[in-house]
Amino acid sequence: MAAVLAASTLVSPQLTGPFPVGTLGAHLVDSTRLDPFQPSKNRELMVTVSYPAHRRGQQAPWLAEGLATAIDPIISSPDYLDIPAGTVDWAKTLRQARVDAPPIRNKWPVVLFSPGLQTPREFYAGAADDLASRGYVVVTVSHTHESVAVEFPGNRLEWGLLPDSKPETMKKAIDARVADMRFVLTQLPRLHRWADTSRVGIAGHSYGGYTAGETMAHDRRFDAGINIDGAMEHTGDGGTYAPGEVVTKGLDRPFLLFGGDLGDRELSHVDTSLTRTWADFWPKQRGWKRDVHLDNGAHLGFSDMQWSLPQIAQISPQRRADLIGTINPEDALDAQHDYVAAFFDLHLKHRGTTLFDRPRHPGIRLVG
C-alpha cells in the first residue's frame, strides 16, 4: 500500500500472489445479438484479460488516456470525490500487470468479473490483477451503454445511455449483463489459449454481484460465484419488489455473499434494511454458501477506490469514510484479496482453507 502522495500520480498495490501478471484488452462483437440500448447495431464489448505471465513488457496504464480525460470531471465532481478536476493524473497511474506479457503455459481456472452499475471495468483492475497473480485467468467486462463510458479501439468513446432507474430500465440492464457474461465466456478460448473453461467462476460488485448470481442461474458453465455487496433485484425506483431468479430459485453450486456497511446498516442475510434479497436467497441456496462481512467497510471500498483514495490528500476525511469506510485500507485490501482467492481456490482448485471457519483478518466477521 503506497503512502499518501503529494503528486497527482497514484501507485497501485503490489501483487500478493506468486506469479507476475500480463494483461491484454479485447474488442468483442456479438453478431447474434442487437444492442438493447442501441438496437440499430450489434452488441459490442470491451474486456480486459489478466493472466499469469513472465515478467516482461511495460506496466499497463490503469485508465487509457481518452477514458481518463473524459471521466475525470465526473470522478472529481461533488457527487463523487469532491476534488478539483485535474487533481489526479489517472492515465499515468500504472497497474502492476504488464501489457501483452508472455503467458505462463499452464491450464488456469477462469474468473469473469462484472463491475458495479455504470462503473468502468478499469476500476477493478487491482482486484483482477491480484487474483491473476494467484493463478487465474481473470476477465473484467465493460457493459457498453450502461457503463458511464467505454473506450474502444481508435479512441472511440461510447457513453452510458441509461435514461433512469425505473424497473424496466433495470431489468434491461440485468438482462444485457447476463447475456454479456455468457457471450464473453464463449469467446474466451480464442482470447487466451491457457484459460481452462472447464473450471469457471464469476464475481461482481454491486449490480455486478447481482449479475454474477443471475448469470449462474441461467448458465451452468459457471461453477461458483461471489456477490460483493450487491442487492440481487431489479426493483428500480418506486417499483414492486423484483428479485432475480438467483433469489427466488437459489443455486445448486457454491455462492459467496461478501458484504459491507452503509452507515449503521449492513448488507447481510440477517439485516434486511438495505435489501431483503440476501435474506430471501439464503434459505433457497442449495449449494455451498457463506456470508462474510467487512465491518467498517463501505460500498466503494470493494473497488480500486480502496487503494487509490487514501493517496489523494485533497479528499476530505468524511468523504473518504463515506466512500470506502473507516477500516484500515491495507487491512480491507488484504481481506478482500484473500477471501476472494480462498473461495475460488476451494471450489475451482479444490484447495482447503480455514478462512470460512474462523476469521483471520481485522474487520472480517462470518455472518453465516
UniProtKB/TrEMBL annotation:
Domain Peptidase S9 prolyl oligopeptidase catalytic: residue ranges: 178-237
Pfam family, one: Peptidase_S9
GO molecular function: 1-alkyl-2-acetylglycerophosphocholine esterase activity; serine-type peptidase activity
Assigned keywords, A-Z: Hydrolase, Lipid degradation, Lipid metabolism
Alphabetized InterPro entries for the sequence: AB_hydrolase_fold, Peptidase_S9_cat
Gene Ontology process terms (BP): lipid catabolic process; proteolysis
Protein name as it appears in the record: Prolyl oligopeptidase family serine peptidase
Species whose genome carries this gene: Lentzea alba
